Amino acid sequence: KDGDFLYYSRTFEGKSYTVYCRAPITIPPADADADETETVAEVDWDGSAETHILPNEEAYLDVNQLAEGQKYCSVGRVAVSPSQTLLAYTVDFVGGETCQLFVKNLETGEIVSHDPDLELYGVVLWGPNDETLYYITMDHAHRPYRVYKHVLGTKHSQDELIFEEEDELFWMYASKTLDKRYLLIDTKSKETSEVHYLDLFSDDNSSSDTALQCVSKRRKKVLYTVKHHEGTWFISTNVGGTPNMKLMSCPVGPNCEDQWMDVVDETNGVTLFDGGY
Questions:
Q1: Beta strands 213-216 and 224-229: pairing type?
Q2: Mind listing the pLDDT tens digit for each residue in 23-77?
Q3: How far apart are CA 136 and CA 158, in angstroms?
Q4: Does residue 179 come out as left (phi exceeding 0), alpha (psi in the -120 to 50 range) or beta?
Q5: pLDDT-based confidence at 274, cuts 50/70/90?
Q6: Residue 274 DSSP class
């Protein structure tokens, strides 16, 4: 569920690729006292490929069409804009996770942005509005190492570099917190990790590289990941020699690494794979 739509994907017999679909949420919760986060949908599907699963279903990206005439086709990321009217997606037509970036108008079907000379990693993320995108590029060894900010309507040569991982032992990934407030940049080697974050809704983002903050600077053989909830980072980590991982927390803000507090301590024989609120 995202905004006013339910998003899902379908596969059809005789076709090799996924079809990405969405349908508007038109039915309110049955109980007035129900949790507002719950969604009720009327499913009246006869099981055939020709009929919609939900009323007013829309196929907004058919990968079978993208693959026509291509020797190879793999979609990396599909991301709908905050207004639900634009679609950013990455496609690898050559193999090796070298992708191209497309932006499609979902109301007209028109491709409104595509630079065939821009090669990037499969990740693309929207900023706080329909004007800003973040993407990752790779070095000569196909290691994801740079994050750029792109403003729609401008040339990619004008894109702002907001982060670069210079250590060749570290790989990079980018995501957003569940509340979509923060852009997370995770860098990780086999034994060490580090997370930077950018408040997408801050008024102080005129220069993204200076607005970027670090949850905790990398420490040798310390791994951690973060989840955000109402101004708090929940941190899954092996800090302090806890190979089974433990859950800690700290407030979002400066000097966070000096304020880590135990939430769930390590349990012998039990591995904590993830944690949050």
A1: unpaired
A2: 998 766 556 666 655 656 667 677 777 788 898 999 999 999 999 999 999 999 9
A3: 15
A4: alpha
A5: low
A6: -
Report domain extents, the chain: 1-62, 70-164, 173-277
Rounded-to-integer distance, Cα 242 and Cα 152, Å: 45
- CB neighbour class for 65 (10 Å; exposed up to 12, middle 13-18, buried from 19): exposed
Q: Name which of 68, 87, 90 is nearest 79 in CA terms.
A: 87
Q: What DSSP string runs through 160-193? A: EEEEE---TT-EEEEEE-TTS-EEEEEEE-SS-E
**pLDDT: is 159 or 39 the higher one?**
159
Structure tokens that stand for 234 in this block: 């929940």
C-beta separation of 53 from 15 below 8 A: no
Q: Are 219 and 257 in contact (CB under 8 A)?
A: no
Instruction: Give residue 149's identity as a one-letter amino acid code.
Output: K
Q: What is the torsion angle, in degrees rounded to the nearest 10, for the CA atoms of residue 17, residue 23, residue 28 and residue 34? A: 20
